[in-house]
């Protein structure tokens, strides 16, 4: 299963989306991020698709240059103040790291991470030694869910027998281990 298929299996990760509103200013559609209070051009952030809040539901679609969203239900023009959201982008190293995990390890890791109060989308930094074709080593991933920070060490071996072991240390000093052998 590729990374996009895996992410579809776990659609509702906390903090997976950036939410905001749109306004038509100086002949351009501007997105105002609710959390960061920053403004961006919609066309620059909507490359992978956007979701538009309409009649109490989020409709998935593709941005249209004329200021509309093309959904399965039709093409809808946006109006000033409409709410949209888009999925946060995962960094290249992090996305490749997730893709390199065996399916069972990936899903066990996500469940473990979620049980600790973190989402896949809370990743601040990922060092991925697998990108350098190392058959064994340690990857470092830092997560921040706005309430706590977690530093994960991923000990891995690849070859005839693969193994993965995850250790997390929280900023509170708590530690936890998750191991997936084989």
From TrEMBL:
InterPro entries: DUF2777 (IPR024488). Pfam families: DUF2777. This is DUF2777 domain-containing protein.
């Amino acid at each position: 299963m590729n990374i996009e298929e895996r992410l579809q299996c776990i659609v509702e990760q906390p903090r997976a989306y950036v939410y905001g509103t749109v306004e038509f200013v100086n002949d351009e559609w501007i997105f105002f991020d609710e959390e960061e209070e920053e403004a961006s051009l919609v066309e620059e952030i909507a490359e992978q698709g956007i979701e538009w809040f309409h009649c109490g539901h989020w409709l998935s679609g593709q941005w249209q240059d004329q200021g509309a969203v093309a959904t399965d239900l039709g093409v809808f023009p946006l109006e000033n103040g409409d709410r949209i959201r888009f999925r946060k982008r995962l960094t290249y190293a992090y996305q490749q790291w997730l893709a390199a995990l065996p399916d069972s390890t990936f899903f066990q890791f996500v469940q473990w991470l979620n049980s600790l109060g973190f989402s896949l989308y809370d990743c601040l930094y990922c060092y991925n030694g697998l990108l350098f074709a190392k058959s064994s080593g340690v990857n470092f991933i830092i997560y921040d869910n706005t309430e706590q920070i977690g530093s994960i060490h991923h000990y891995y071996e690849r070859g005839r027998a693969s193994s993965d072991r995850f250790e997390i240390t929280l900023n509170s000093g708590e530690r936890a281990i998750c191991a997936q052998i084989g």
